[in-house]
Amino acid sequence: MGNNDVVRISPAATRSTHGRWTVIDQALIEQKIEDAKKNTRKREIHNFHPSDQEALHRMLNSIQPGSYLRPHRHLDPPKDEGFVLLKGSAGFVFFDMDQGLMKKDLASWSPRDNSPEATAFLGELDDEFRRHWNLPPHAWWKIELC
Known about the structure:
By secondary structure, the chain is of the alpha+beta class. The chain contains three helices and six strands; from the N terminus they run ββαββββαα. The chain has helices at about 25-40, 115-130, 140-145; strands spanning about 5-10, 15, 45, 60-65, 75, 80.
């Protein structure tokens, strides 16, 4: 995929201009990693679907360490999300219905993106995940809070 096939659609996203198919190549992956590193949210999206009105949304997400994705779900219309890890490592925390997810899709009990509380919340989840899997501590979030 060459640079001619990619257009920026927002400060946090690009889109492919392909017709029926495209390839996720190493150049696109590396570009999205670099874009995510520069983004204040520490993540970037590359859409393969032409518009938000499409029934199927296909995208490449570059998520850097320390990025907080607010717990959410897609109700209207109902959608599942699938993840394929192409590079790096990831930890996921799943919440059940008893945590009070609201109809607007965002978990009302979770901190907002880009808030000081989000960094602390993410750090606590990271600590818990590492304890559960017997992984060494990773104090990146404690440094950012100071």
